[in-house]
Design brief:
Blueprint (H helix, E strand, L loop, with lengths): L3 H13 L9 H6 L3 E5 L2 E4 H11 L9 H22 L5 H20 L10 H18 L4 H26 L6 H19 L3 H12 L8 E2 L4 E9 L16 H16 L3 H9 L26 H9 L1 E3 L11 H10 L58 H4 L3 E4 L5 E7 L5 E10 L3 E2 L10 H29 L2 E3 L1 H11 L4
Helix pairs in contact: 1-3, 1-7, 3-4, 4-7, 4-15, 5-7, 8-15, 9-12
């Protein structure tokens, strides 16, 4: 099963998250008294099965058999924890101290998640009220504060033991400059084959790369570039559709007037970015708006994906128009190719898949919703009249109400309106023109972007493969004594799964 390693990690995470939610309700507390067997030195109850079930049930559409998946995760968990015990893995004194602090931090986080009565004021009083509410919730679920923390500590300790085992297994993987060079040499030609004539496949790989979640594509097709934007969304942006017009209230119109006045009056691109693009008071596309510091002055941790888009922008190519709102891609291509650019004739077999919005801001990606392919209408035979002419090409600037501005330092900014949900008025500008052709790598420079990316993700790949093989071996060597008849009957009768 390809996702075994990912799902197993999620099971460990479920243990860590115990403080945030009650994994066992009062009914499940009764389930904790019902044994369903053991895997190696780890005993399981029906409550353990339900905890794993609740973790994976939301993803049932991706599984052929949810019940078997849940049982497999219990087996993986039991075999891994048994391996920890057999290896004599323990937490050292410093780690034990950190564990105590983690328990208290998770407990406090759980308390803070409660709601205090509206008439309670003052930080200490609010926390005290939340604590009382949480104690009541614990009591209703069969816990005291001591038993809750004890179970939390037990789950966290097991998770930390498995993390230490994972570190030991990863250390067995040989990795260095030679492995990086091998990957680069082996994938240079295959990436060219994959991406040279497929900008859509390249865009998907490129987005994964800038989000720091995948390998860098080692070949760039011709014509790839990126754009950034200032987006002022409609007041009713979530409900705009083909039949619902987007509207701006007085406040939004005032912002638009200020942006246009700055562009008409003359402004450098740097100042435009500083004053508007990086300003949350104007830009609804928060991908390009730096997060504000915490109240204590420390920097906010931002996802690599948000930072990747912020640095590079949205990937574009004239064959990728269907990935974006109507008009957005057209304006982007006119910025690159000039105002006389016309849309290329679609290739019959090309059906680019729309891109998901970046995690940093789900509302920001100017992405088109999937649409059904239009049914071609029957056509008449070509006219024999030599004087016959084709219909004039549509004026794209007029069609999409595109307006161009020029900054004082010679950059063009395009204004375009997209009348769709999450759309509005976009002020766009070119950010990067990607150099086409094969990538190069300095194998003697670990800070070389290509080297660093391959070193990170190829190492992860090798470590994941090695860990998966190790896990298979542990499972084979570990006695599994689960009561499958009871579990299967319970899953079928009470959960409605086979």
């Amino acid at each position: 099963m390809k996702t075994k390693l990912i799902k197993f990690a999620a099971l460990a995470l479920a243990c860590i998250m115990f403080a945030g939610v009650f994994a066992c309700s009062a009914a499940q507390n009764d389930m904790s008294k019902i044994s369903i067997g053991s895997v190696g030195k780890v005993n399981f109850t029906l409550a353990d099965y339900m905890e794993s079930y609740n973790t994976y049930a939301p993803y049932v559409q991706y599984m052929s058999n949810l019940n078997e998946t849940v049982k497999n995760q219990l087996i993986n968990y039991g075999a891994t924890l048994t391996r920890c015990y057999d290896q004599g893995i323990k937490l050292d004194e410093a780690e034990e101290q950190q564990l105590k602090q983690d328990v208290e931090a998770e407990f406090k986080k759980a308390v803070e998640a409660m709601t205090a009565p509206s008439d309670v004021t003052g930080e200490d009083a609010i926390y005290a009220a939340k604590l009382e509410a949480f104690k009541k919730q614990m009591k209703d679920n069969g816990y005291t504060e001591a038993s809750y923390k004890s179970e939390l500590e037990d789950n966290l300790r097991k998770s930390k033991l498995m993390e230490k085992l994972r570190e030991q297994v990863n250390a067995e993987v040989e990795f260095g400059k030679e492995q990086v060079k091998t990957y680069f040499d082996e994938h240079l030609a295959t990436d060219e084959e994959k991406y040279k004539n497929d900008p859509n496949a390249f865009a998907t790989a490129y987005n994964s790369y800038i989000a720091d979640s995948g390998f860098i594509p080692l070949y760039t097709p011709e014509g790839m570039f990126t754009v950034k934007q200032l987006l002022v969304q409609y007041e009713n942006n979530e409900s705009v559709s083909a039949t619902v017009e987007g509207v701006f209230n007085d406040e939004l119109n005032k912002k638009l007037d200020e942006v246009r006045a700055a562009l008409d009056g003359g402004i450098s691109l740097d100042d435009f970015v500083k004053n508007f693009v990086s300003n949350k008071d104007y830009n609804n596309d928060t991908v390009f708006v730096p997060a504000e510091p915490n109240e204590d002055g420390t920097e906010v941790e931002e996802s690599a994906q948000t930072l990747g888009y912020r640095k590079h922008g949205y990937i574009m190519h004239e064959k990728l128009l269907s990935r974006y709102f109507d008009g957005f891609g057209v304006a982007a291509c006119m910025l690159k190719y000039g105002e006389d650019w016309t849309e290329p004739t679609p290739e019959p077999s090309a059906t680019p898949a729309p891109t998901a919005a970046p995690e940093g801001d789900a509302s920001a990606e100017p992405t088109a919703a999937p649409t059904e392919a239009p049914t071609a209408a029957p056509t008449e035979a070509p006219s024999a009249d030599p004087e016959a002419t084709e219909a004039p090409e549509e004026d794209l600037i007029e069609k999409y109400s595109i307006k161009f501005y020029e900054t004082t330092d010679g950059h063009k900014i395009a204004e375009v309106k997209t009348n769709v949900a999450r759309g509005g008025i976009h002020f766009m500008f070119l950010n990067e023109e990607l150099e086409s052709g094969a990538a190069t790598m300095d194998e003697n420079n670990e800070e070389d972007p290509v080297y660093a990316n391959i070193a990170k993700f190829y190492r992860q790949e090798l470590e994941n493969n090695h860990y998966t093989e190790s896990l298979k071996k542990w499972v084979e060597e570990t006695p599994v004594r689960l009561n499958n008849t009871y579990i299967d009957n319970f899953a079928r009768s009470y959960l409605g799964i086979n």
